[in-house]
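Job type: complex structure
Entries:
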Amino acid sequence: MEKELVNKMMEKEFREMTDNEKIELREWCETEEEFDQLKQIFVGIEELKQVEKYTPRAETKKSLDDLFVQKHSNVKPMFWYNTILVALYPTEKPFSNRPLVRIAAIGLIALIAFQFVFNGKLAEPKQQISKIQDSKDKGSVSKDQQLEKIETTTSNKNEVVTSVTRSVPSPVEIKVEDFQMAHDQDPFVSSVSSVSSAAGVTYTWTTDAVVSTHPDGIFTGESSAAFSQPASYQPAIFDLLTTTF
Amino acid sequence: MRLLKPQYTTMTDESLMQAISGGEKRAFDELYNRYSGPLLGYFMRMLWRDREKSEDFVHDLFAKIVNKPEYFDPTRSFKTWVYSVANNMCKNEYKKAEVRKGMSNGLDNHYSLSDKNSNVMSEVQDKFFQEAFQRSLIILDDKHKEVFSLRHLEGLSIKEIAEVLEISDGTVKSRLFYATKYLAESLKEFNPIENR
């Protein structure tokens, strides 16, 4: 009897069978009584299959294993390129039981836990730092109000930028922010800076440049810094100016 | 050294047999996992539910596979081959049993063995029906019993059974018909369907 017909018999009663199915069954049973007898056999078979699931004893397998090892003792063990992959990701096991998946899951959990635990602790110092910076910024703004900021720039030729910040009570602070010497600069006046204080005193000096010290501007080869002052501070200079012009 | 390790679970029975010939232990393990249980059940049904004898037969059959894998023809189906070997082992046992019966005092040891192991069915809901079913199967003539068992309990097709038993498809069908009718008749007194 075909499996399909047996399945139909298991699902239906005799009166539920169609005419075509009854024709197919005619070889096996014609009456309802015969049908039920046959059906009970198939039901018995199904129950027997459920009950009779045998597993040989472990000793049988062990004995066969020993026999196999004895028989193939001269065969060298095989080495495979994908041994580790097969061991970590065996396709015959359910997805959740594969070692690689489990390792990945543990790693992910550990990562999330690390983030969760340490994120708060790490964020705390950052917040403190930002608070300190904020307060510093505020402080500097208030300080700026008390300061007199003087910026001086040198001539375009020299491309030297010098900023000078001077506090009234404190000594002069000179901060060189950027210093660049152009290639085609004038060696005689390489860098000239001036500072004007609140008292009206202006200091002008040269930096790292060869400056002429001769009254007529003749280059003598010396390289010392020369500060200019108002003429009133050195009245003798008027004599020199008078003879010159 | 080979490039990739094979996935034994997805390999066919025939491929596993070839691997066993090459000494691959895991191929043998896989084949054992697939067939040891069903073969033990088959031997139990065919050998009067004698557990010890059935275990021995399973061992002997797999020992044959280990020692003489070349006996298997790779062009054939392993399933039909292994059941034909099992069936021949049962036939030999029947012959031995006939000889022992002739020499014994007339008591049939098989029925005593069957009764001793009948507690297997104790957990079945339709206990009495199941016991009667098994008893009827044991009493059934060997040639009908093997056909019925292979068809309905081992799940072999008519063609496969014909190959295992080396008989025609028509003979298989007629034996199957007779066995089914006989069992239905012998279990007439039970009607578990109406009781459900």
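Summary: The first helix of chain A runs from residue 3 to 11. Strands of chain A lie at 148-153, 160-166, 172-179, 192-196, 202-206.
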